[in-house]
Amino acid sequence: MNALSPLLLALLLIAAAALAVAAALEAYPTIASVGDCSVSDGGEELKPIRREVYDGGRIFDISHRLTSDMPSWESEDGLGQFLRLAASMKNGSLANGSEMKLPVHTGTHVDAPGHVFDHYFDAGFDVDTLDLAVLNGPALLVDVPRDKNLTAEVMESLHIPKGVRRVLFRTLNTDRRLMYKKAFDTSYVGFMRDGAKWLVENTDIRLVGRIRPSLVF
Ligand SMILES: *[C@@H]1O[C@H](CO)[C@@H](O)[C@H](O)[C@H]1NC(C)=O
Ligand SMILES: *[C@@H]1O[C@H](CO)[C@@H](O)[C@H](O)[C@H]1NC(C)=O
Ligand SMILES: *[C@@H]1O[C@H](CO)[C@@H](O)[C@H](O)[C@H]1NC(C)=O
């Protein structure tokens, strides 16, 4: 490891699950079927409401809906069945109860420090050790060049102002809609080590969200 503090790098690798984002409304590519659902007025038909934008843009729900067709790390077949109804009211149970079984690295998630640093894993640094004050708050949405990985050179070229603590990088992965492709695509745009190091040493950023097939946004 170089001079970069492992913990800081781990924090940089964190992708936000639900952030308050001060950004344009079109920040997040909504799934058509999940789009704008409004409450049914007469109660004649119950329609699920899946809201993504709250208070005119104070909060964006950027988490992807879990589906069996969503990509899973190095899998050709996607996530597969991960949800089952273990107890059903139709079968006389008091309540419906579902069970989920899936890798914690699925869909929109935060990585714990122990995910990539074994000594943190051994010392018990799970997601519960992450700082909620870092995970929540205004974030800057940054469009990055579509023909490069997230290197130090790219980071420098973005001129992210001092004082910005959270950024979300919109990359080629979004344009390619990798989160909607079942087969895992290894050619995703990634956050390179020198890019992370540059951010730690030259900015106030504590949280980075980025997009890749098994991950965020
Ligand atoms: C309970 O589960 C049944 C399937 O057995 C489903 O049709 C029904 O909508 C569920 N009810 C609620 C309240 O989720
Ligand atoms: C309900 O009961 C039927 C008959 O025992 C069974 O085939 C079915 O899987 C059950 N469904 C759930 C959701 O428990
Ligand atoms: C990013 O790096 C990966 C792995 O080195 C490579 O496959 C991919 O083509 C790169 N993407 C871009 C846009 O340069």
TrEMBL record:
Gene Ontology BP terms: L-tryptophan catabolic process to kynurenine
Pfam family, one: Cyclase
Family, per entry: Belongs to the Cyclase 1 superfamily.
SUPFAM superfamilies for the chain: Putative cyclase
InterPro entries the UniProt entry points to: KFase/CYL, KFase_sf
UniProt GO molecular function: arylformamidase activity
Keyword Ribosomal protein: no
Protein name: Cyclase family protein
Keywords recorded for this protein, A-Z: Extracellular matrix, Secreted, Signal
Residue ranges that the Swiss-Prot or TrEMBL entry lists as coiled coil: none
Chief location of this protein within or outside the cell: secreted
UniProt subcellular location: Secreted, Extracellular space, Extracellular matrix
Signal peptide: 1-22
Organismal lineage: Eukaryota, Viridiplantae, Streptophyta, Embryophyta, Tracheophyta
